[in-house]
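Hi D.,

Good news: the full-assembly prediction came through. Inputs first.
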Amino acid sequence: MNEILEKSSLAYGIKLLKIKNPLIVQKAQPGQFVVIRLKETSERIPLTLQNFDRTSGTINIVFQEVGKSTKELGLVEVGDEIMDVVGPMGRPTELDKFGNVICIGGGVGTPEMYPVARALKKKGNYIISIIGARSKDLLIIEEEMRDVSDELYITTDDGTYGLKGFVTDALKEILLRSKKIDRVLAVGPVIMMKAVSEVTRPYKIKTLVSLNPIMLDATGMCGACRVEVGGETKFACVDGPEFDGHLVNYELLLQRLSTYLKEEKESMELFLKSHKGGM
Amino acid sequence: MAKKIIPKKTPMKEQSPEERKKNFNEVPLGYTEEEAILEARRCLQCKNAPCITGCPVEIDIPGFIGKIAEGDFKEAARIMKDKNVLPAICGRVCPQEDQCEKVCVLAKKFEPVAIGRLERFIADWEATQEKIDLPRIPLSTGKRVAVVGSGPGGLTVAGDLIKLGHEVVIFEALHKPGGVLVYGIPEFRMPKDIVQREVDYLLKLGVKLKTSFIVGRTKSVDELLKEFDAIYLGTGAGLPWFMNIPGENYKGIYSANEYLTRSNLMKAYLFPKYDTPIVRGKKVAVIGGGNVAMDSARTALRLGADEVKIVYRRSEKEMPARIEEIERAKEEGIISEILTLPVSYHANNDGWVKEMECIRMKLGEVDSSGRRRPLPIDDSNFRIEVDTVVVAIGQSPNPLIPETSPDIKVGKWGNIEADPETGKTSKKGIWAGGDVVRGGATVILAMGDGRVAAKSIDEYLETGVW
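Then the structure:
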């Protein structure tokens, strides 16, 4: 169980792992996530599913190496086993025939958008995808997204590929020349999801964002992942992770995400010290 | 009876408050063999034994104590394990003062027999033995039982049914078995290797355990029903309550579940050796007056707080925590801020909580809980300086199973309804007990529910009659 079957590097510091877990894959739906614990001393970290294949019994996770836990996860090799993988967690994305749907993925949010866009396409929606990254070499999952989209727009902050600018710049243009848009989904950095929601707000287009607060058990037991939606406190792990983007309190989300900055830095420094030369 | 009775319990040695508030080691140190025998000899060996009826799992208390008095610890252990598969746990966290010891005949004139301490002694004695006698397991009945949740109730059901020859598989959502015993109750009150020891004993008996398996997500109850003849739901009270007051989502404000899970299950008190962090506050306020509040407050102290306050809206007399726990907390220097109700929080520019605004309360008439109702005093607002807050005001059942199995009937608090005589729910083949039925209760009540349900499950598996 939880054996690594494939490992690949999608971009600098962004890795994909294909994990054997015949149990979770049977239930996994687009928009859901798993919680993994690498070894006895590890944290539990929530990671969204990039893909799941019921015939081979495998799930894919994509992560960016930002702290100790993800750096350490990046060191596992094919054949290794992850101690714990639990899921699928969270409510699946609502899938239906809505009409014209814009799917936006930013940074490591794009892999998470992929199964969502694929499923919405299968339901008969017209899929307009926008994926963005800081620069060309950080853009990931492009081909997969192209496969499931009727239109695909690419943006890079530095203009090295696609449109120069943010995903919201592409979004604004699409909305201006406006075919009727029935729904917008966005996954990516908090700032991006906030900006997307601000762009769609005047158009009153239903906009769903997938939130990534700090989680612990992710079963609804602890409330670490509290987010404010429409003035009400929700637990992202069981009430989400998707919420109405126009109602989310993003400032609070950003603030709460910074709770353990000090500890994360300490952990990372210790880790780098003990892996000198090995990295 | 000519025997001269020693009026007081044989004292149990413990770490001094000064010493223990700096470490996570267990506070009481247990009896020596001599102390245990001395205490066991205080037992009157009453024929009608009211203590047995005071015990939710009906341990033969005079029986095992009599054997301790004779120095036959092995037989004492056998008698105790006949009814209780988790003695090392019960001996530590049961509220004996409200159960077996409350009805002890000695208690009419003197202190009751220290039943809890003796139970703990015999369990710990057995653990030091090289060879533990396993009970004889009958031939397999071929019936399969799924136990959902590996807390005290689930472990009891598993232990009872495996001994009757049924196949038992426990499903646990977290990565370690034990439920509240591992995520909730701190190391200094319930050492985790002791929980693991009790679980290992069940595994030796043949119980199977699947961790990181979340029933309702990984598989539904209905899917399990296709593989199992009976299901016991012991999923606990995993939904923390907040007060819904302004500022409650500022950084530094935790539910007790989160605070304790970080420290206990994830071992954040050993950070950075363990990766999970926890805020090590200097000025900590814990809201609530139950055992969970005491556990949180004492954890905060051990994490290095300079000042820990228990903020409670009624007076100390109404606190639902065990008296022993309140006393221990006080000895360690925890301050009670009673008749106080938090109304809002204030934060710094970075979103960290810095003050808790409270109002003073007074006690009014007796309410439905039998306690005097707290009433706010007008214009009594004041602020307490804090950098960490733990909200320990209770919890309700985790809604995942009711949500994914709508045909199981639930009450108005989201608790699963179960017949107290049998543990049966409204759905055929499904039993439930412990906190998922009762809301937040105790380890031993969960075990008592497990015992009742196990009996009913066994009857059902035998007869097929629901």
